[in-house]
Amino acid sequence: MASRNLINMEVYQLGAVANNKELLKRLGVESGGVSIMSKKMELFSFYIKALPTPATNILKQDALSIGADLAVPAGVITCAKSHYDCILIGTKKHIEILSRKELAQPFGLKTLAKELQVFLKAKSFAPQIMGIINANEDSFYKGSHFMATNAIEKIESMIAEGADIIDIGAVSSRPMASSVAVDEELLRIEDICDTIKAKKLFEKVIFSIDSYEPKVIEYALKSGFSLINDITGGCDERVINLAIKYDAKLCIMHMQGTPQTMQNAPHYEDVMLEVSDFFAKQIERCEALGLQRDQIILDVGIGFGKTLEHNITLIKNMKHFQKFSCQILIGASRKSMIDKITPTAVENRLAGTLAIHLKAIANGASIVRCHDVCEHTQALRIWEALES
C-alpha cells in the first residue's frame, strides 16, 4: 500500500516574471544566488544593423562560447557582403559578459559593447497616469473639451479618480488642426491657471502645460505647473530655459512635420533608429543648456507623423527607449490607430486604448496620457497586481 506521505513531483511553466529577484527571495535562495540567478532569468534580444562582416563572425563565435547566440543571414561565413544585420540573443548575464569581452575586439565591436552596457544600466520607473484637459473646441475627442469652471470640476474629478498628472492644453494638435494666436491660447487657459493657483490644486497633483509657446508656458509655470509637454520636442531653446528657470520637467515628443502636414505620407528608413537619434540629440542639447536628465520625459509621438505600422513598431519596441534612463510617455488615447485596426468611432475606443496602453507599460512606458482616468486607474492597478 502506497504511503500517504509520498509527495508526487509536479511542474508548471512560469509566465513572464516582472520581478525575478523577488520570486527567488520568496523561494528562499541565498542573497548571492539571487543576484546571479536573476540575471539568468532575463532574456534580451538586440537587433544590430550594418555590422561589419568580420565583426559579425567574431561576435557569433564569442556569443556561442558563453551560451548566447547571434542570428545571422546566410552568407556571413563566406563574407559575401561587407555588412550584415543580425540579432543578438542572450540572458542579462550573457550580455554583461559579452559587453566586457567585445571591448577588446576590433571592427566596431568596442562601440557595440559600450552601447550594450548602456542598455544594461537603463532605469525603469513606476507607472503614472496623466489625465487630459483640452481647453478648446477643436480637439478630436469632444469628451475632453472643458472650459473655465467645467475644467476645474473635471480636474478635481480626475484627482479623485487617481490621476498623478493633469495635462492642460488650449490648442489642438490633431492632424490638420487650425493654428491659434498666442494671445488667444493664453486667454483660453488664464482662468484655469488662476484657479489652480488660488485653490493650490498643484499641491494635490502635478500639472502639465501642453504648449510650445514660451509666453503661455511661463504663465502656467507661475501658476504652479511643473511639467512642460512640448510636442515640438524642445526645438525652441526658450522652452528648455523655462524648464531650467522654474525647475520643471520637460516632455520631449517626436513629430515628423507639423500638425498641419504630419500625416501627409510619413516615411522613415527605420522609425526606431530615427526616433532614437532624435531623442539622443535633444537630450544632449538640453543637458548642454543645464537641464538634468531626470527632468526629461520622452514621448515617441504616436500618430504624429506616423503610419499604423510605425506606431505599432514603436509600441512593441518601447523598451529600447529605456536606454536613455528617462521616463517614457505613451499617448494613444482614442487615437485613429485603433480605428485602423478595428473600425470604431472615437466614442467607442476606450477598450482599444486600454489594450495599447497596458502593452506599452509592459514594454517600458511609465506615463500614460489618457482621457479616461478612472478606467485607466483600475486597469493599471489590476495590471500591477498581476505583474507583482
Features:
Alpha-Beta Plaits; TIM Barrel; 2 domains; 3-stranded antiparallel β-sheet; 14 helices
Detailed description of the structure:
By secondary structure, this protein is α/β, with parallel strands linked by helices. It has two domains: 101 residues, Alpha-Beta Plaits (2-Layer Sandwich), CATH 3.30.70; 260 residues, Dihydropteroate synthase-like (TIM Barrel). The chain has 14 helices and eleven strands. The strands form two sheets. Strands 4-5-6-7-8-9-10-11 form an eight-stranded parallel barrel, surrounded by six helices. Helix 4 runs antiparallel to helix 5 and helix 6 crosses helix 7. The protein starts with 19 loop residues before the first helix and ends with a helix. The mean pLDDT is 91.
User: Any idea of the CATH topology of the largest domain?
Assistant: TIM Barrel
* The CATH fourth-level homologous superfamily of the largest domain: Dihydropteroate synthase-like
Output the structural class.
Answer: alpha/beta
What is the CATH architecture assignment of the largest domain?
A: Alpha-Beta Barrel
From the N-terminal CA to the C-terminal CA, the straight-line distance is: 43 Å
Which residue ranges are poorly predicted, with pLDDT under 50 across at least 5 consecutive positions? none
| Helix-residue proportion | 40-55%
Q: Can you summarize the main beta sheet?
A: 8 strands, parallel, barrel
Write down the domain tally. 2
DSSP strand count: 11
Mean pLDDT: 91
CATH top level assignment of the largest domain: Alpha Beta
Q: Give, in spatial order, the strands making up the sheet with the most strands.
A: 4-5-6-7-8-9-10-11
- SSE order in H/E notation? HHEHEEHHEHEHEHEHEHEHEHHEH
Given the C-alpha coordinates, what overall shape results? globular
Q: Which value, in Å, is the CA radius of gyration?
A: 24 Å
Query: What is the overall number of helices?
Result: 14
Proportion of beta-strand residues: 15-25%
